[in-house]
Amino acid sequence: MQARELLQRIESKSAPVIVDPRSTVEFARGHIPGALNTPIWKLVLHRAQLPQDRTGEMVIACMHGQRAWLAKKLLALQGYRNTAFIEGWLQEWIRAGLPWDRPAS
After folding, report:
1. CA–CA gap between residue 79 and residue 77 (Å, rounded)
2. Boundaries of domain holding 15
3. Residue ranges of the chain with pLDDT lower than 70?
4. pLDDT per residue over 20-40, tens digit each?
């Protein structure tokens, strides 16, 4: 999914579930608004807070793609099949100046 399309869907309240498989520390430094922090270890141990509906649309976004690919495989093993990646990963989202939730300094 293209970043601007995801942003439009977020703004129109029709966004898919946004899965961010980075660590809790990385997520706390900033993330796409509304994203769920689902670190890889939680996916491996089936401890991630995921939607019950396994048919719902999900977009997976990490900084460079490696963890997103792994998260997609782990989600598929848990029955989630309607998954996509954000094009250009989070680095493109940031580079484009799109909304980024981060703690106040």
Report:
1. 5
2. 3-95
3. 104-105
4. 999 999 999 999 999 999 999
Report the candidate in 47, 41, 38, 46 with the shortest Cα–Cα distance to residue 83: 38
DSSP 15: P
Question: Does any domain span residue 105?
Answer: no
Q: What rounded mean pLDDT belongs to the chain?
A: 96
Whether residue 68 contacts residue 83, with contact meaning beta carbons closer than 8 Å, is answered with no
Q: Which sign does the torsion angle of CA 34, 89, 82, 72 carry?
A: negative
3-state class of 98 per DSSP?
Answer: coil
Please give the model's pTM, rounded to 2 decimal places: 0.94
- Count of domains for the chain: 1
Query: What does the block give as tokens for 65?
Result: 């793609």
Domain annotation covers residue 101: no
